User: Fold this.
Amino acid sequence: MKVRILGCSGGIGGRHLRTTSMLVDNDILIDAGTGVADLSLDELATIDHVFLTHSHLDHIASLPLLIDSVGDLRANPVTVHATAATLDIIGRHIFNWVIWPDFRVIPSREQPLMQYRTIALGQSVRLGERTITVLPAEHTVPAVGYQLDSGAASLVFTGDTTVNAAFWPVINRIANLRYLLIETAFPNSERSLPRSPNTCARACWQRS
Assistant:
């Protein structure tokens, strides 16, 4: 299993600033931030699965354009995996025919360009030799992290989270854990900011 970091920044505007996304092998995305746009059209067309940690724009910004760009290059729909809460949010606020078309019914309900798959905390999804397990996260919107297990070793991505007591017992039980990627947007002196949506939004705006 090969993991390529496409983006890990909270914003854009610099040579190396891309928002959160990871490409697993050539067919799985963990989040779909602006870093996805650096992939070629051929690379985009091989992506079969997108696992979302949560619905914030820096983690989903490229998803609508990804589906639009590769629709006529693929025989099967792109599967978007997320919790019921996250799928509900992107369905109501993104793929709603006002912001962007609902590709679950284009060109038809029988042959869509995109399909949703609901996942739940603790659930594992097996894709070939790889297993992706949903981990707990604490954020201002419903959120999760992921364990990516190749069989030989695991990588864990916390997703956006604040202090999360439920996370560590789960991680400590992963016998083949090799890599742990922890989101660190704020220093300890600003630890209260990620817990308040309004305060977090102001802080992010002031940093831009």
